[in-house]
Amino acid sequence: MSVKRLLCISSEGSAQARACCGELPGWDVCVVDSMTAARKVLAQQHYGVGLLLDRGDGSGDDGIERFLNQHHETRWVGVFDAQRLDQPALRELIAAHLFDFHTRPVDALRLQHSLGHAHGMATLAKNKAQQRRIGSQSSHIDGVSDAIVRLRAHIDKIAAVDAPVLVCGESGSGKELAAQEVHRRSQRASGPFIAINCAAVAPALIHSELFGHERGAFTGATRDKQGLLEAASGGSIFLDEIGDLPLDLQASLLRFLQERVIYRVGGTRTIAVDARVITATHVNLPQAVAEGRFREDLYYRLSVFPIRVPALRERKEDLPLLTDLIFNRYAEERSPQLKGISREALQAMARYDWPGNVRELINRMRRAMVLAEHRLITPADLDLPTAGPICPVKEGLGSSRLSAEKVAIGESLARSGNNISQAARELGVSRMTLYRLMAKHSISP
Known about the structure:
Rossmann fold; 5-stranded parallel sheet; about 15% strand
């Protein structure tokens, strides 16, 4: 018989605690005398079941509630004096946070049954979480869908090659996370990772932010300032929304990529900088090039290794895992009685198209965790329809087929580095057919 592990919190002394737990065959019991000690134990090792032996008068119930809220993944069973149940605050705490409770004198057989049931439920939850995390244990990009597995494999290959990377994807899909993963898996992992959103900095300031400036270069420049490119030397710089970079600054960035040196604003000397450039955009850069909004030579310099981050609607198999991660990350914000997400809510999430991608998922989950009034999050809490497809029926099968075809072509081109011959072989079509399909879906090579 496998040994079951139990964390017991008792303020009445270890001897009394072990006496209470002494009639629990098959249990490995760890006894601590305070919530502080329990936090230290739980920070080092997971306990699926916890036993709370309470001898308080109610004055410390707020601290107990905070502790139970922080460690909600453990199934807690409480033992209280019978008169304590007359306190409304304790009754609410028990209903919201405890798996089961007992009053003194404790019935040893019933306590053993309660703890055994709690252990069984904790084991089921642990196995479920482990299955969902297969394939993403060594990565910061969570997911088990084919699209995410391909993305991780793509990152593994290009991370070791010290060349520019262009990350494409819709807003909110996790482009910066992909950029961080490229840096983390590269030989520059010990160096800095510096990110800047090119769309969030005023055009008049972005040149100084990236390249730095010399004292006296302009009004207010009272001292030399190191730019972000210099600060990223030895590591990576992530330029988000590169499509919004002004044309004059595009020329300066191109010069850096070619020569690996920069000039500070107002400076006359070159400064050698060893930084890998990772860029990201949600816009169609080939189209921006055709419209004259982005330099063609810079585009080809940046897109040596293109990566496409899939939209959430393309990886709906990951929704259960992502919701678990979000639920645990923001557990302290949740309403006390909330224990998880319902199957109906997961089904509604699978039917939804998620135009805001993972960012929208996080926002809807956080709002639902605060406003939910039941034990499980419902579709109404997420403000999602409970049934029926989101898209009109007339756009059903045909639209889905066209969308899947476009996604497959885009991913194949990204994996092959826009090599038409290689992508055509992977897709099982001729070069001419691939060109025709690309024109059909307005995909530029």
